[in-house]
Design brief:
The chain has about 475 residues and is an alpha/beta fold. Helix content is about 40%, strand content about 15%. Belongs to the UDP-glucose/GDP-mannose dehydrogenase family.
């Protein structure tokens, strides 16, 4: 029986290994992590991450050929293929601070693999890593190998949170990069054989190591670039009276462009987009390509501008101050159908409103109060370190309350900000919300999920990103 071990039981490792176990019943899969609480959650009825369809997959396989364990060394020792899916946070100090990836966790994983291995192994990069990481890992393994042979493969994930299980069942492509040597080709084939048990062969792409590593960064940079492009257009739409939904629909019907990732919003978030672009910027700078680096920096600048523009619109619309005003925040996760808050635009929007002394009442169906408080008081990039290395959040913060109902969040509020496109926000009883708010009552729709005209009929003053402004908002322009 082939044995697979995955180091790291997070958003990538957990779902990916669960699907491999389901689709390959002849393979034994172990997911290992040093976090006892995380592994305990994977072994319970309350999984540590929310992902539609994940519960069913885990329950079908757990205890049969899918195991979650803190005994990292035992399972690495037994494995034929070791996936490494550990954090690669952005460095906060030293060379490349604010841009370069911190490979501390990757390096320690590689050294541990070398220490405990007594048989040849295939080591698979599953984390998003900078180009040439495989080369560094290869050096660590070969210099500590004690005669054992290791082959390094790059197998980047292209999952979208909220649809990860669907993406894993039916991927656009599986990308495997390896050394162009007989041993490398053999390792690539071994991993290809795993995926081929459910993925059509024409969708399994093979490249050299560096192409696979760079393809992941490039894919995320291109997707983020599309969001920043439509968000830049949304600002122009507001200034001219155009409707960004109509513009993006017209643009998306061009088959060369396509309709995906053209929804204007308060900004992109998630664990990868900003981090990968910063990584790309750093690689470009290190390779003497400042103009290319500057190009990709602009994608992040537009994203930051969109968030600050939203905050400025809220403040300027409400008589240029939100001090001591209650603002309901509907949605804190970076997108619907996930509880993930990493780099969510809600953090910067909330911090901006708190900077103007607003009182926030936050509701999200999948994010805990502890996570929200932690995110709002954490330094940039701290989120990507293991939870025990993150700073603790203050337990008492009078300006932020977290509630478990949208109506409670909006009760006696001056304004409502919709920051995540949860389906339930489309179907709320906005008449009830209006009746229980202070007047004038404002709705600031950062995801374009509500029918602005219907809300205006109720009596709301509505701001929708990239949509024609009503008279009230035209009289109070936002200065970004």
């Amino acid at each position: 029986m082939v044995k697979i071990c995955c180091i790291g039981a997070g958003y990538v490792g957990g779902p990916t290994m669960a699907v491999i176990a389901l689709k390959c019943p002849s393979i034994e899969v172990a997911v290992v992590d040093i976090s006892k609480s995380r592994i305990a959650a994977w072994n319970s009825d309350q999984l540590p991450i929310y992902e539609p369809g994940l519960d069913d997959v885990v329950k079908q396989c757990r205890g049969k050929n899918l195991f979650f364990s803190t005994d990292v060394e035992k399972h690495v020792y037994e494995a034929d293929i070791v996936f490494v899916s550990v954090n690669t946070p952005t460095k906060t100090q030293g060379l490349g601070a604010g841009k370069a990836a911190d490979l501390t966790y990757w390096e320690s994983a590689a050294r541990m693999i070398a220490d405990v291995s007594k048989s040849d192994k295939i080591v698979v990069e599953k984390s998003t890593v900078p180009v040439k990481t495989a080369e560094a890992i290869e050096k660590i393994l070969t210099h500590n190998s004690k005669g054992i042979k290791f082959q390094i493969l790059s197998n980047p994930e292209f999952l979208a949170e909220g649809t990860a299980i669907k993406d894993l069942f039916n991927p656009d492509r599986v990308l495997i990069g390896g050394r162009e040597t007989p041993e490398g080709e053999k390792a690539i084939q071994a991993l290809k054989d795993v995926y081929a048990q459910w993925v059509p062969e024409e969708r399994i792409l093979t490249t050299n190591l560096w192409s696979a590593e760079l393809s992941k960064l490039a894919a995320n940079a291109f997707l983020a670039q599309r969001i920043s492009s439509v968000n830049a257009m949304s600002a122009l739409c507001e200034a001219t009276g155009a409707n960004v939904s109509q513009v993006s629909f017209a643009v998306g019907t061009d088959t060369r462009i396509g309709p995906k990732f053209l929804n204007a919003s308060v900004g992109f978030g998630g664990s990868c987009f900003q981090k990968d672009i910063l990584n790309l910027v750093y690689i470009c700078e290190c390779n003497g390509l400042p103009e290319v680096a500057e190009y990709w920096k602009q994608v992040i600048k537009i994203n930051d501008y969109q968030k600050s523009r939203f905050v400025n619109r809220v403040v300027s619309s409400m008589f240029n101050t939100v001090a001591s005003k209650k603002i309901a925040i509907l949605g804190f996760a970076f997108k619907k159908d996930t509880g993930d808050t990493r780099e969510t635009p809600a953090i910067d929007v909330c911090k901006g409103l708190l900077g103007d002394k607003a009182l926030l009442s936050i509701y999200d169906p999948q994010v805990t109060e502890d996570q929200i408080q932690r995110d709002l008081w954490m330094n940039k990039f701290d989120w990507d370190h293991p939870i025990h290395l993150q700073p603790a959040s203050p337990t008492t913060e009078k300006k932020v309350s977290v509630v478990w109902d949208a109506y409670e969040a909006a009760k006696d509020a001056d304004g409502v900000c919709i920051l995540t496109e949860w389906d339930e926000f489309k179907d709320l009883d906005y008449q009830r919300i209006y009746d229980n708010m202070r007047k004038p009552a404002f709705v600031f729709d950062g995801r374009n999920v509500v029918n602005a005209d219907k809300l205006r009929e109720i009596g709301f003053i509505v701001y929708s990103i990239g949509k024609p402004l009503d008279a009230w908002l035209k009289d109070m322009p936002a200065i970004a």
